[in-house]
């Protein structure tokens, strides 16, 4: 490999060797520190997307880095044929902070959604699952079946049968889709990939009440809303509901890939779910450290406080911004174009269509909001 690669070399190499599935933005990121990312030429960028709501503790948090280093020197992998301690420590922590009974680890959000789908059928003996229009739950065949959107689904049909879609936020529409064969309803407390769709207050608790009445499981997909993103540790806590299955991913590992499906009152039987890497000691060490940082540094509280300030700043710019905590979106005429202009201001965001998604690390302070606001002024 060339000793010193420029952006053009990187772009050419990517287009030559990698699956052409990502519509990448023209920045080659070399390293990160807290709220900042640096490209291969050394330019500094303000991180306002956290690697898609993953780096909640900031980039390369020293406690997470330290935990990964120590664990890497000790043990990286053994499989689940034997017991290892980091996965037990993490399981105890996660069940305690969520109020759930037990969990199954996976390596990404899609994997944990797959687990929830299998478990819902297994636990109820029923086949159907109701998801919502504009939902995003992943790209493996099972999780894709729960994901709305022709462009994701069409080329891969037939998908898993028995999935119905209701209008997001509408109990009336949901009720029309629930039948005697409904195993579960799966819901994002706020739709993330769709562009930060926030349902009316009370939707989640009404959904909980209705599904409990009908004996239908409620799967809450907090892949994106979890770990302080919305201003509480978990979004389900805004409405005091208890999910039957809770799906966690993105921010769990502080940048290391790991996910989990947590549940109470039922379980798989031996051999019905598994995986070589699930609950891998290195991933669990990263997650243990990351969760400790989120709790210890009170990042949910900071998310609530800074999210409120940031939302006001966006509204002051005359934007139709909406958000909860540090999960914020606002619409523009040209989503990708606006993100490109922000890159020129050395600020990194992402977009869904013409919605700019603002998902900064939860360690964000006033000075970063000021920087972002000044950059927006240049761009809008
Ligand atoms: C990102 C996401 C997923 C899928 O996670 P991957 O790690 O990309 O497989 C599932 N559900 C929600 C709500 C997500 O935001």
Lay out the secondary structure.
Blueprint: H1 7-17, E1 29-33, E2 36-39, E3 44-47, H2 50-53, H3 62-74, H4 85-98, E4 102-106, H5 109-124, E5 128-132, H6 141-145, H7 150-153, E6 163-166, H8 171-177, E7 182-187, H9 203-214, E8 217-221, E9 245-248, E10 259-263, H10 281-296, H11 299-316, E11 322-324, E12 327-331, H12 335-344, E13 347-348, E14 350-352, E15 355-358, H13 366-379
Parallel strand pairs: 3-13, 5-6, 5-7, 7-8, 8-9
Antiparallel strand pairs: 1-2, 2-3, 4-10, 9-10, 11-12, 12-15, 14-15
Helix pairs in contact: 3-10, 4-10
The protein binds pyridoxal-5'-phosphate.
Describe the structure.
This protein is an alpha/beta fold. Helix content is 38%, strand content 17%. The protein starts with 6 loop residues before the first helix and ends with a helix. The site of pyridoxal-5'-phosphate has 15 residues, from α5.
Question: What keyword list fits this structure?
Answer:
13 helices; 380 residues; 17% strand; binds pyridoxal-5'-phosphate
H/E element order: HEEEHHHEHEHHEHEHEEEHHEEHEEEH
The class by helix and strand makeup works out as: alpha/beta
Question: Terminal Cα separation, in Å?
Answer: 40 Å
Q: What does the main sheet amount to?
A: 7 strands, mixed
Count of beta strands? 15
